[in-house]
Amino acid sequence: MAAASGSHSAHSAHGSSRPHDSLTEAAHAVHGSGAPVVAPADALDDLLYPPAPRPHRPGRKRSFTMVAQHREIEIVKGVKFDAWTYNGTVPGPILRVTEDDLLSVRFVNSTEHPHSIHFHGIHPADMDGVLEPVDPGQEFLYEFRARPAGVHPYHCHVPPLREHIQRGLYGALIVDPKEPRKPAQELVMVMNGFDTDKDGENNFYTVNGIAFFYAKYPIKVKRSQTVRIYLINMTEFDAVNSFHLHADFFRYQENGHPQNPWRHTDNVAQIQAERGVIEIDFAEPGMHMFHAHQTEFIELGWTGFFDVQDA
Ligand SMILES: [Cu+2]
């Protein structure tokens, strides 16, 4: 299935009638030079760079508004997707709180379908976003104490769940631990796929919503400070997605839960809703590739570079 959708996607992505040319273009895109990205370099900043952490202060209230809204988004040059979004983007906004904050999320449904927000984590059952679908034009207030520390997905939980997720209703929630993590260059990466021809298989794979984005615009990091990535997989249709780093190793903590051990690797696989924290102390400067190690995903958009600088 992957090979068939792969060649088809590369074809439709570039509007060429000659598959051979399209595959050549895709091969260029893998290395950045020909990446068919129309968005400017800062287009994904709000989805890549999380807000700063705040010190632990039990009982502090953190209020957010999340609006479900339909929006046509562009996955790759010339390929549009009829998305269902939280606040207009796929993935939705990064929510960041500290353990024991009172997380208060006003959810407004501005679409014509019922939706909800289901947060992973520990909270009262009636705040779980499963048994309380929010009808069109209605709203709901989710309020609970944020725990446990880590990185968690949030997503719509209205059936058919597969449809509501693959359309784009998901995002990242960071819950900072009481004992703060050491300062780092922090990034959020939500891995996903897009079924742009509605055949039940993904045609493109991205990090943070735009195919090939970080191949065209490498992520600049300093070698002198740890790079910390909050990584979540929200890919529908495929059983697994993954993150592989070239030319170095990293440490990985499942769920970002402070009591979970770190393991050392250059490749991590996640099923849907699985997540974790990656920390990289780059040994060498230069361009370090990262991508899914389902290699068919690479030419369908899931590839990028860190530009590691010594300065
Ligand atoms: Cu929904």
Walkthrough of the structure:
There is one protein chain. The chain folds into two domains: 2-41 and 182-309, Sandwich (Immunoglobulin-like), CATH 2.60.40; 53-176, Immunoglobulin-like. The chain has six helices and 19 strands. It has helices at 2-14, 19-30, 45-48, 161-166, 213-216, 295-298; strands at 61-76, 79-86, 95-98, 102-109, 118-119, 139-145, 150-155, 170-176, 185-194, 204-207, 219-222, 227-233, 241-245, 250-254, 262-265, 267-270, 275-280, 286-291, 303-309. A six-stranded mixed sheet has the order 10-9-12-17-14-15, with no helix packed on it. The chain has a five-stranded mixed sheet with strand order 11-19-18-13-16. The chain has a four-stranded mixed sheet with strand order 2-1-4-6, with no helix packed on it. Helix 1 (2-14) crosses helix 2. The longest helix has 13 residues, at 2-14. The termini are far apart. Bound molecules: copper (II) ion. Residues 115, 156, 158, 164, 169 line the site of copper (II) ion. The site of copper (II) ion has 5 residues, from loops.
Structural features:
14% helix; single chain; 2 domains; mainly beta; five-stranded mixed beta sheet; Immunoglobulin-like; binds copper (II) ion
